[in-house]
Amino acid sequence: MTTCGNKMDSAALLSRLGLGKRPVQIEADDRFFTQGSAADWIYCLQCGRAKLTVVSQKGKQATIMLLSPGDFFGEETLVGTEGVRTATATAVNTCTAFKIKREEMIRAIHEEPSFCEEFLSYLLERSMRTQADLVDLLFNSSEKRLARTLLRMADFGKPDEMQALIPPVTQETLAEMIGTTRPRVSYFMNRFRSLGLIEYKDRIQVHKGRLKAVLLDQFAEI
After folding, report:
1. CA-to-CA distance for 128 and 124, rounded, in angstroms?
2. Where exactly does CATH 1.10.10.10 map onto the chain?
3. Which of 171, 218, 217 has its CA nearest to residue 193?
4. Tens of pLDDT along 82-136?
5. What is the third-level CATH fold of 2-135?
6. Interatomic CA distance for residues 213 and 143, integer angstroms
7. How far is Cα of residue 157 from the mean position of the Cα atoms in its chain?
8. pTM of the full predicted structure?
9. What is the DSSP code string of 114-168?
10. What is the dihedral of CA 23, 29, 30, 36, to 10 degrees?
11. pLDDT tens column, 154-175
């Protein structure tokens, strides 16, 4: 499951290019767009957290990405003139995002080399993270996938912080993110807490150094 980091200063850049003129506010659990709908806008998240989910033909849902401030989403808008949403974007908490027309985004990519370079670098990084997630899903245990996801979410904080509060997330969402069940996530979370890797009451606090050390060793599937 992908989470994105090392983002460009999107607010300043979009403002300079005249692209951040349509801020929208979405309340928790409301949707920016729905899988299968027409793709005519691209978004850049400025405040809050959001997630991308997909639903199979049999109705099984999976969370494929968590979004944080600075992330672009809905980029399928840029593919063809009649793109279709490949996922549903939902606000985790109250979100503010810039809403950008397809034509305006394409113009900026063509006419602003610096923006084009930064935007393509951002997409490449996200593609690499998605590939790493696929390898993780194919070859690693669900326990190790959970540890890796928690550590990545903790990296949203300052790099030198040894303890970090991750964004609010439910065990159901964590289960969707790593491809397992909520009871398994609950079991692993209790195990991590007993090992001193995490603490949690209302929010999960990750001990980054300890968890990184554990990730160097292969978890045994329980």
Report:
1. 6
2. 141-215
3. 171
4. 688 999 999 988 999 999 998 899 998 998 898 898 889 888 988 888 888 888 8
5. Jelly Rolls (2.60.120)
6. 15
7. 14
8. 0.74
9. HHHHHHHHHHHHHHHHHHHHHHHHHHS-HHHHHHHHHHHHHTTS-TT-SEEEPPP
10. 110
11. 865 454 555 688 877 889 889 9
Residue 27, C-beta contacts closer than 8 angstroms, at least 6 positions apart: 91, 94
H-state helical runs in the chain: 10-17, 102-111, 113-139, 142-154, 171-178, 182-194, 208-215
Cβ-contact 105, 29 below 8 angstroms: no
Q: Which CATH number fits domain 141-215: 3.80.10.10, 1.10.10.10, 3.40.190.10, 3.40.50.1220?
A: 1.10.10.10
Q: What is the pLDDT of residues 19-40, one digit of tens each?
A: 767 789 999 999 999 999 999 8
Angle between helices 102-111 and 113-139 (to 10 degrees): 110
Nearest to 47 by CA among 22, 20, 11: 11
Is residue 195 within 8 Å of 148, Cβ to Cβ?
no
Determine the pLDDT at residue 73.
Answer: 94
User: How many angstroms separate the CA atoms of 212 and 208, rounded?
Assistant: 6
Q: How far apart are CA 221 and CA 3, in angstroms?
A: 24
- If residue 96 lies in a helix (H) or strand (E), which one and from where to where? strand 95-101
Cβ(65)–Cβ(133) below 8 Å: no
Per-residue pLDDT tens over the stretch 184-216: 999 999 999 999 999 987 789 999 888 888 777
Alpha helices in 73-112 (DSSP H): 102-111
